[in-house]
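To the wet lab folks,

You asked to see what we're planning to order before we commit. Fair enough. Below is the target structure as tokens, and below that is the sequence we designed to fit it. If anything looks off to you, flag it before the synthesis order goes out.
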């Protein structure tokens, strides 16, 4: 029997309502990716995160189509390749992404990383703005932007999101402060620290107290934060089902504080082209 769809909670930034929990798809390809997206939508996910860099937009598009869920119900994000940030490349790239995703628009288009080649932010955001005016992109955002660069982006375009690594072992105080000031969504990527959260004794203890698992505790902790969304990746049905099932238990203030206290500046994603982090 298929599980009944679960409705996830939403956040609102700059008047835009967005499901707080999404499915991450990095490192998922082929039929497994297509099936993961279809299954997630059946489970009630309404937010899917992909990127040109993941090489799986076609599979994500097939999963969306196979789900039968109305396109208008799904918040779909993709990201520009760091080496395609010139205006002409942005247009071409987006048109390829839309063809792969089998859709006329994406809900959110992100600059995946600050340009490693020095392409001016104004040029890229200007091209993205035109795509937004043309209706191919609903909203604009950035990813892996430290607070200073995110502030620059906000001066240039109506950016609603910065997607960054965020989990109990890596705090993001500067960006959370900016999010409060400027009504920005912080999307937590690698929210489970790529699975390391499962082995943390404190998280296991809190999970046991609630009859949950540590992934659910971490997701609940993240999603309790007002402007924070999270996009855990799960390649198994069981993990996808567990991750969407996090809205019917409550962490205590003491537990939230203890989880926040696990911060140790531990980053799982730090490629050679990364910016100077906050
Ligand atoms: N913007 C960027 O530069 C950027 C960078 C990295 C990631 N992202 C996005 O963020 C998404 C998530 O990040 P991530 O893939 O790095 O790591 P993650 O979501 O923190 O962790 C994924 C790992 O956790 C496991 N897991 C998931 N749910 C679980 C559960 N309920 N119980 C036990 N284990 C569980 C998964 O196992 P199974 O797969 O076996 O289920 C996988 O090994 C990506 O897929 C991508 O969409 C964006």
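Sequence we intend to order:
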């Amino acid at each position: 029997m298929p599980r009944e769809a679960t409705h996830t909670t939403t956040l609102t930034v700059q008047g835009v309502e967005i499901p707080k929990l999404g499915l991450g798809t990095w490192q998922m390809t082929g039929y497994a990716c297509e099936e993961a997206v279809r299954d997630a939508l059946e489970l009630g996910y309404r937010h899917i995160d992909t990127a040109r860099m993941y090489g799986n937009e076609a599979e994500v598009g097939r999963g969306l189509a196979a789900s039968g869920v109305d396109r208008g119900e799904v918040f779909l994000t993709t990201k520009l390749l760091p080496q395609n940030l010139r205006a002409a490349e942005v247009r071409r790239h987006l048109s390829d992404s839309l063809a792969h995703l089998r859709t006329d628009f994406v809900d959110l288009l992100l600059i995946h990383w600050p340009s490693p080649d020095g392409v001016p932010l104004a040029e890229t955001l200007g091209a993205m703005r035109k795509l937004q005016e043309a209706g191919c992109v609903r909203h604009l955002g950035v990813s892996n932007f430290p607070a200073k660069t995110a502030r620059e982006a906000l001066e240039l375009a109506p950016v609603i999101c910065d997607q960054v690594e965020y989990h109990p072992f890596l705090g993001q105080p500067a960006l959370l402060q900016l999010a409060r000031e400027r009504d920005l969504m912080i999307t937590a990527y690698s929210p489970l620290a790529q699975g390391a959260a499962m082995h943390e004794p404190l998280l296991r203890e809190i999970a046991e107290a609630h009859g949950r698992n540590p992934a659910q505790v971490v997701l609940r902790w993240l999603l309790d934060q007002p402007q924070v969304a999270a996009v855990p990746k799960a390649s198994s049905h069981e993990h996808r089902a567990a991750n969407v099932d996090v809205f019917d238990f409550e962490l205590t203030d003491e537990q939230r504080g203890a989880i926040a206290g696990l911060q140790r500046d531990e980053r799982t994603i730090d490629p050679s082209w990364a910016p100077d982090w906050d």
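Structural context that might help your review: Strands lie at 10-13, 16-19, 23-24, 47-49, 75-80, 106-111, 137-143, 159-165, 185-189, 228-230. The longest strand covers residues 137-143.

Thanks,
Computational group
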